[in-house]
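Note to self: keep these together.
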Amino acid sequence: MVERKNEKKIRKIGVLTSGGDAPGMNAAIRAVVRTAKYYDVDVVGIRKGYAGLIGGEIKEMHSRDVSNVLNLGGTILHTARCPEMMTDEGLDKAAAIYKILGLDALVVIGGDGSYRGLAELVKRGVNGVGIPATIDLDMKGTEYTIGFDTAVNTGMDALNKLRDTSNSHERCSVVEVMGRDAGYIAVWCGMCGGAEEVMFPEEKENINSDRVIQQILENRSIGKRHNLVVVAEGVGGTQKLAQDIQEITGIQTRATILGHLQRGGSPTATDRMHASMMGYHAVKAILEGRENIAICDALLGATGLGDIGQHFPDSDEEYKGISSLSLLKRVGELLAENGFLIENIDSTVIAQKPKLLPYRPRMMENIADALGLERDRVSVKATTEEGLGFTGNGEGIGAQAVCLLSTVADYDPGDRMEAGGCTGCPGCQKE
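Structure:
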């Protein structure tokens, strides 16, 4: 039987979907709920995104509530825009409701706007984890967002059908796909659908409708009787481009804007799998934090006992995926076995953001509990790099730790004598 570990003693989490819907959101919700219930954690579903959090629209969720949702598009929790989250008053209210509800963590499934809202809530003491879900694939820090694969396949299906009718009527079809200010959907659809031209916002300065028209004329001169042009919505001007193509070339041209058609539909297997894995790991990230590694290294280094990898290799199944607090506790036990006592620990987190002030008391408490120390023997502070280096650029977080150790021998005259004579120590003050 697999041991169920809840290292941080998380009792209740909330989950919401925010911003534009994306196929696969329901698979993520399902994974969050079922993973949490497996670890005996209560889950509340928050309807209508951040608006529902502020309004207290919640529902306790159980495994049966997410049955038969893998194949559903949209989101069973619904979603909505929330202008209040753009104000300090709204953010403060959302953070206050989070505490009133007794939540230990919040899982937010959404795009970059949802992440910005979550980042602001984290500054206000919310323990949050984000799951990237947007068809646009326009989020920094991840190579994949839930919904993208389904949106591309929807676009491909439309292109295949438009190709049939364009070929029958010897037309040109100009197809606008979604993606906001990112051209990923357009590029994927255009390349995989055999489009003659793809116009996307990243190359907006180099976009030239005259070049597109010239290409269509060249295609006609070599006998090609139909053409496909894909335009990302961030480029715009789809109707005008179709009109110009028809007027200049004399080729009948139709503009088709797929719009929100790409947000709906049953998610593909790829989106279901990624969403399920992300939901699972979101809950695991809540249950098993990965802080305190610098402290472990400092303690082991000060004793000359080596490093973490030497004693607790992640290649060993026993330590693979072990939580940081469990690892810290193991390090404390190792020091005790070798006759070392921990006097004080001073840890510094180097990060541009988020601000750690709301979390410092809990961090110090967790470290002290793991090592069996009094709370006043642990210090955690934070600093920035003033915009310099990878931490200053927001590309990562660094940590440093200093510790003060003593040995049992310092407090036991008998041990000192056995080691070759007592020279005096703070233990008995023997001259």
